[in-house]
Amino acid sequence: MKYLLIVFIFISALLVNISIFRSIFTYSKPIEKLKYFDDFNDISTKGVTVKDRKKKNIKRFNNKKNSSFIDRYYNKEYLKLIKADLRFNPQEVVVAKFILSIIAGIISFLITKDKIIVGLICIVFFNIPKYYIFMRAKKRFKEFDDEIYDALIIISNSLKAGYSFLQSLSVVVKETNNVLSKEFSILLKELSLGKSNIDAFNSMKMRIESENLSLMINAILIQNDIGGNLSEILENISKTIMEREYIKNELKTLTAQGKLSGMIISLLPVFMSIILYLFNHEYIRTLFSTKIGIFMVILGLIGQVFGFLIIKKIVNIEM
């Protein structure tokens, strides 16, 4: 265990040095940071369909010239950080993962002296930053969905009052708060600087994963192509979104008990195993020291996974 901790500390120190080196030499010029958005700056849309441009934007992080596996990994992680609205580099996140796992491993080793518990704690703390980024992004998406109805009403009423589309967006920025105001502020700046509607809206869709946003953007882009009363279109979309959210809330209420039951049934064997391990090591070690025990553990895990997936399939109702 002592040598394992030494290896972890060495890897963490190495990653810190790599992160500092890349920060100084790779991102020394501010213009270098804009390379992540280089595909969005191409405003020539002739002969390119919306579907093709969407695919191009989604894959821009994986299609960089001469990019290595590490660069592709960092680009995907950078996209997750953008969605979570975190001002960090992927390298810093990786370093934070190793530092957290090492500190937690050392503390747990000093307290328990048990290799299995130390390993489990290291794995848990290593994944904490990833879980935090995911939950922060999910929270932003939910906040955006909760407020997009108000944004559509504001844009629709502003257009009825004689405002232009850009002026209507500026009203949304002033009248709303948090995620909605920030995202529409970025959209307004991009459109004001001459970015095409397709590129600006696709950039917004990259930052925010929302079915309601996709519905709004598709309606606006179609209206730009074929014409029509945008104010009336957005008003109808706002009503559709409100009805969809009402139905979703009803479904969540009806399926909450099933989801909770599935979660409890899935986690109960895990917690029971941990409790038995803490109170009686030798009793639970039999499962991991004999062939029959290992076979039973594998069979139990497979059954748990299948049971969880079946319950999830039953309670998840797609709209």
UniProtKB/TrEMBL annotation:
The keyword Electron transport does not apply. One of its GO terms (cellular component) is plasma membrane. Residues 155-277 form the Type II secretion system protein GspF domain. It comes from the Bacteria. Pfam families: T2SSF. Keywords: Cell membrane, Membrane, Transmembrane, Transmembrane helix. It is a multi-pass membrane protein. It is found in: Cell membrane. The chain crosses the membrane at residues 6-25, 93-111, 117-134, 260-280, 292-311. PANTHER family: INTEGRAL MEMBRANE PROTEIN-RELATED, PILUS ASSEMBLY PROTEIN. This is Type II secretion system F family protein. It comes from Helicovermis profundi.
